[in-house]
Amino acid sequence: MSLKPQRVVPNDSSLDFNTSSYLLFNPIISSSPTTTAAVPTPPATMAAFTNLILKPTTNIISTTKLHVFTSHYNPKIQSFFPTKSKTHTPPLFVTKASAGAATKTDDNGAAKTKKEEDKVQHIHTVAEFEAALRDAKQKLVVVEFAARNSKQSSEIYPFMVNLSRTCNEVVFLLVLGDESDEMTEFFKREKIEKVPHFNFYKGMEKIHEEEGIGPDRLMGDVLYYGDNHSGVVQLHNREDVEKLIADHKEDNKLIVLDVGLKHCGPCVKVYPTVLKLSKKMETVVFARMNGDENDSCMQFLKDMDVVEVPTFLFIRDGEICGRYVGSGKGELIGEILRYQGVRVTY
């Protein structure tokens, strides 16, 4: 089995396929990306980490932290420690359901309150917070650090509630820093200066954090860091890659390997597309590897000449037949179709 990149010509024997009619996602409007093993000129949506393999992994965050996202919701971040107003302002953030209020019924017809429905755990003490992290074990824990009088916190909270209803393998916590003196001190300990602020934990270890993000980015982060049970195979070393290739030699399926980094903005941006494609394309195997997970993964990136992320490697019969570097939805779909033998027109 060889994993060295090589130049190939895709099979163009099938009928023409215009990707603008491929209704899984938005039409393709960008120009044709590079389809060979050569590394293309990096577009703005790529997170460059040239020479990363020669530097300690502690530099990864600053290398891949790009401001390339657009969102339908982009509020100004509110400082958590503003000058206190002498006038009383009614709290905007309400987390408790009205007593006796029923919003839905379960399968047995029993009423469910709003608090029961949203599955977001409201944390009142540091002890509760630590217990919640401990009980979650290896599940992803998403914590919103908010304030009762923060309009931005109250606006993003419903989107977290919706995620809590659908992401059963993710634990969602809400911490209000202005709820008590203990929580205010807790915010200071965690260096939370502006809200809304999101921390992501696994195994009681903080793995990622965001500040002032909107719903699209929140959803992307939850999927990217909490995806353990989807149709995308999670790879943790070179041996996992070799096993995946061996498992699909006989069925001749195309393997699309998504190579990224833990704190790569464009990698997070494109991952929901990868998830959707994994559910739609039954003849394609989707897999993912984070290069900064361990030394084995980083060596794999070096061996594959990966110098920018996200990079998608297309593998068939143990050979890398092409790659796509970037985070464009339409371009990624077009490249997958191309290596499936469909002639793509733009």
TrEMBL record:
Q: Which Pfam families match?
A: Thioredoxin (PF00085)
User: What InterPro entries does the annotation carry?
Assistant: CDSP32 (IPR044192), Thioredoxin-like_sf (IPR036249), Thioredoxin_domain (IPR013766)
EC no.? 1.6.5.4
Name all Thioredoxin domain ranges.
123-214, 239-331
- Name a GO molecular-function annotation: oxidoreductase activity, acting on a sulfur group of donors, disulfide as acceptor
Biological processes, Gene Ontology terms? cell redox homeostasis
Gene Ontology CC terms = chloroplast stroma
Its source organism is Helianthus annuus (Common sunflower)
Keyword Nucleus included in the entry's annotation = no
If you read the UniProt record, what top EC class would you report for this enzyme, in one word? oxidoreductase
Entry protein name: Monodehydroascorbate reductase (NADH)
**What keywords tag this UniProt record?**
Oxidoreductase
Q: Which N-terminal stretch is annotated as signal sequence?
A: none
The UniProt transmembrane annotation reads: none
Q: Which SUPFAM superfamilies match?
A: Thioredoxin-like
